[in-house]
Write the structure tokens for this entry.
Amino acid sequence: MSPTTSLSLSERVAPSNWRAVFGWRRLRTVAIICTLFTLLFSFGWQLPMWVLVTRLFGVGLALLLVFGLFEQWPRRLPQWLARWALQVVAVGVMVPIAMSIAYMWSTAPGAPMFWQEPKRLTGFMTFTFLGMLVAPWTALTALLRQREAKVEKQAIDFELERSEMARQALDARMRLLTAQAQPHFLFNTLANVQALVEAGSPRAPQLLQSLTDYLRAAVPRLDGSANTLGQELELVRAYLELMQMRMPDRLAFALHIAPGVHLLRCPPMTLLTLVENAVQHGIDPSEEGGRIDVRAELLSSGHCRLTVTDTGVGLQATGRGLGTGLAALRERLLWAYGGSATLDLREVQPHGVQVIIEFGTSTL
């Protein structure tokens, strides 16, 4: 392809939009400049004032038309020719042409043309000189503002797109972490049922029926969607009842729920993960068992505090720390609340563990 026919992709323009040529901002700019010129030349003007107004505003609209014409046409430009330069040059060239047409239009029939009268020729030269001085700079300024507006719009669009992608990544991450927690809970629960069945316990059928009822209520809520603390407490109560059936002489529990917390939002399996961790790593390894207390309360700061305290074997007995369940829960809290949510693990005397979660509140 020859240099004269090669085209730059950056010089292609959007589909024609002739409404933008005579946009309000452009018309306002032309009106202001023409009004200033009218006021400037009105002093000592001998012809009717409408001639001056018509001449200046006619030239201004003609320059605006040329500016918009070369903004839309030609559709493609050679690589060596920038569209902004074409527009500025076209406006500058159009000034003497439009002024000549305006002077010829205002010449009375049978009267000599303006170039034949020194006084009118001087006026023409003055108008043309000032027009060629002001019009190209006005066009260049408009192009710079238009470019700045386009860059700003692109920046806003990019930021919106980045925010949307971040939100989608957050949702995907939350679903992944929730999906990791689901089998962790379900497999542990099924293992408890299996151990009871293998031991030949007469409570096995009743426990299996309770587990079936529990899963029928719990499984629809394990999809990572919006969850309330009231729903979470129902699951916790059902889970503790199941565990109490498995070890009736070794597990006691109590739920202390403050008014107004049931409608608060929380990530799925938040409280259930704490309770399951207390059973599996605190009460189960202890020969004498223990007690689990669950508290949900609203603080004066507007935060919600969830506390799970067990009197099991404690941290030192098992080297217990942030296991898989708690580590995944901490990460889910981080993704859901940022740095505003906390998870603390504390030793309880004479033995046991207390886990405290605090997070911001929001209702349905």
Observations:
- Strands lie at 251-257, 290-298, 303-310, 342-347, 353-360.
